[in-house]
Amino acid sequence: MYGSGLWSMGTELVFLLMLIPGILGWGKEGHYATCKIAEGYLTEEALAAVKQLLPDSAEGDLASVCSWPDEIRFHYRWSSALHYVDTPDFRCNYEYCRDCHDSAGRKDRCVTGAIYNYTMQLSSYQDSIVESKYNLTEALLFLSHFIGDVHQPLHVGFTGDLGGNTIIVRWYRRKTNLHHVWDTMIIDSALKTFYNSDLTIMIRALQQNITNDWLNDASSWAICANNHTVCPEPYASESISAACKFAYRNATPGSTLGDEYFLSRLPVVEKRLAQGGVRLAATLNRIFSSQPKIAVARR
Predict the structure, then answer these.
(1) Which fold has domain 28-288?
(2) What's the rounded Cα separation, in Å, for the pair 195 and 266?
(3) Which of 84, 95, 112, 163 has an alpha carbon 20 to 30 Å from 26's alpha carbon atom?
(4) DSSP letters of 172-226?
């Protein structure tokens, strides 16, 4: 389906760049939360594979390196287009064939295309643990990050405003842009307001919601239609729908977003973090299962 080419980097210097700051996706806290939730739903088989593929610096903790693709994206510019997919302006629906391309029009270069690509690469794990034409450590980190990204509503935003990046607003008294509000500022405000600035407490609350308040919905989150290994299409569709209903609404250029916006949008953000975690775990469980499965397929 996809060749490696620019989609997979060599190992030299890759992990030396992990501490270099960059522009974040969900933000470090959001990606950490999604991957920490995922760790709790991994099968023993998947957990063993994940730990084998993680770099030594992670010390067996997937969540600790889930922001790596953000930290290297501007040093490896080919990867920048893989963090999002834009739809035509005011089209509140997502279509792979129409939308999945980079700014130069190259097809499959978007977040859903990247999810398919890195799932395909990781699916070679069972056949070639010792030798692979892919960097499977890298593939694991990219896939884990991109499944988080596709759940951030403005990572499936409108082309004209670059997913809210050009919409300048105030978050309370701070000048920022709408995309950044959804990447980090809603989460940061929630941590300070409700979770004593402790990400662990927030993650625990999300885990409790999965098994309590969201139980009826959560039972379906992990399912992929037709027994496919991965299915980012509905995740992207959910995100652009949430972008239209919640992110863009009442957030015009120059507006000030305060308590009303924050308190009504926080449940959306928290549920998307939880969904991303459950779905990442389900995808990794399918990839690393020794049981026969249907190959990665888009159509």
Answers:
(1) P1 Nuclease (1.10.575)
(2) 13
(3) 95
(4) TTEEEEHHHIIIIIHHHHHHHHHSTT-HHHHHHHHHHHHHTTTHHHHHHHT--GG
Confidence band, pLDDT 50/70/90 cuts, at residue 20: very low
16-25, 33-42, 155-164, 286-295: segment of lowest average pLDDT: 16-25
Where do the domains of the chain lie? 28-288
Q: How far apart are CA 92 and CA 158, in angstroms?
A: 9
- Concatenating the DSSP letter of every residue in 29-65 gives HHHHHHHHHHHTT--HHHHHHHHHHS-GGGTT-GGGG
Maximum distance among all Cα pairs of the chain, rounded to whole angstroms: 55
Burial of 265 (0-12, 13-18, 19+ CB in 10 A): buried
Other CB atoms within a 10 A radius of the CB of residue 29 amount to 20
For residue 137, the tally of other CB atoms under 10 A from its CB is 17
CB-based contact 288:49 (threshold 8 Å): yes
pLDDT, residue 5, reads: 37
Amino acid at site 69: P
Radius of gyration of the chain (CA): 18
Instruction: Report how far residue 252's alpha carbon sits from residue 91's, in angstroms, rounded to the nearest whole number.
Output: 17
The one-character DSSP state at 280 is H
Render pLDDT for 123-175 as a digit per residue (tens, 0 to 9).
999 775 556 789 999 999 999 999 999 999 999 999 999 999 999 999 999 99
**What's this model's pTM, rounded to 2 decimal places?**
0.89
Summarize the confidence of residues 106-121 as an average pLDDT: 97
